[in-house]
């Protein structure tokens, strides 16, 4: 994958629970979530989020999740019909970088360090089908200012949003499923969350989305 660096990989399965695969970060804290079937039919291959304020996973960020400049966020998701955060830097208050389901669509907003100022958000044109697995990825290149969304390894949306030296990925807690103070609680399944410190291209995203595939 060229010079891109895999910052963290949380398989979110029965083997690793909410641990990073190489223990590069402290383990995530499980709220009211349950192991369930994964994107390729794996037993205990994902976590089910039930759409309530206690159904979340919180990941401590001791600096190991801070990509500083550019970023790629990706995961497998099976929407359950309720919007909410897939991975949200800063668990309450002002907004860090985040990927969500919003109006049933895949959504990404990049924010600036240190004041959490917004860039324009982007989201897919198409709704993600409820009850079906999809692989989603969001990229931001701080040099070109381009923000892109990919669904199932294919480019879905790309826009110039502006450049910045540093993005807001430094906050101490990252949440999946719930953002404190926001009533949109994600319902559905999430697996294989990966963070890179560069904007991957379509070829690299397709390769990364298949790395976690288990031969059954």
UniProtKB/TrEMBL annotation:
Gene3D superfamilies: 2.60.120.200. Signal peptide: none annotated. This is LamG-like jellyroll fold domain-containing protein. It comes from the Eukaryota.
